[in-house]
Specification:
alpha/beta, Aspartate Aminotransferase, domain 2, Aspartate Aminotransferase, domain 1, 2 domains, six-stranded mixed sheet, 8 helices, 14% strand
Amino acid sequence: MVVASTNFPSNLFTWLHLRRRDVRVSVVEPREGYVTAQDVAAALTPRTRILALDWVGYTTGARLDLAALGELAHRQGALFLVDGSQGVGAWELNVHDLPVDILVVAAYKWLLGPYGTGFAYISWKAQDVLDLEVVNWMSAQGSENFDSLPIEELTLPKAARVFDVPETASFLNLHALDASLEYIERVGVQAVTSHATYLLDRLLEGLRGQAYALSAAAEPARRSTILGFRAGSLEATQGLHERLEREHISVSLRHGMIRVSPHLYNDESDIDALLSVTARLASAQDLK
């Protein structure tokens, strides 16, 4: 299988752990800050069974070309698994128009759901080849009929729900998730995209004037609703992040980059407050 070093740990450690079973896991090291078709093509072989990548980079915010990457995987007979957590809910995505076999999403990001919630899309093609190692109560056909349980002829329905977690759901979390999804559906993903892009355009303009280095997400073809940037050194970037935290500006520090991901609850004043801090520190000798 093929993964990228820039994958979120959940989409990296899962596969690396299989090495204990002598599964060959090739790790792509992106050369340009994001995974390219050339990077993946060089790693894929006819023996590759899974290509697992993140749609949007959790450090840089760079958005991958799922159509091109999925086609490469399918040419080698591999399934294409995508972690969409950093983009679903903020950027339009239709898996039926893409060569994506499995899409997994943590709902606590752009879907505004509680921790511990999420979902997976599993194509018919993937369902046909995946083995179900753990069967729970609701996995079997006819399991809801306690008076006539399928003891002699246990069959599984042809549905993705057979891969659901084998435990009682957290109903409190699911009610909150339901409300979050209703809100996103009512507002519309395009509204989230437009608002976040507007704020990031404002941020980009300011950062370029202050000579900060921008992540690949600043490129039009790689844009998402996340942007990474850094100062001239790791120490300067860490110092900037500490100052932003002291000013109660919530951003993340990931692999030497400051990550900004505005949502509907942010406005121009938040971006201007951030730029005010970056401007002050950009002019300080010790942070150049």
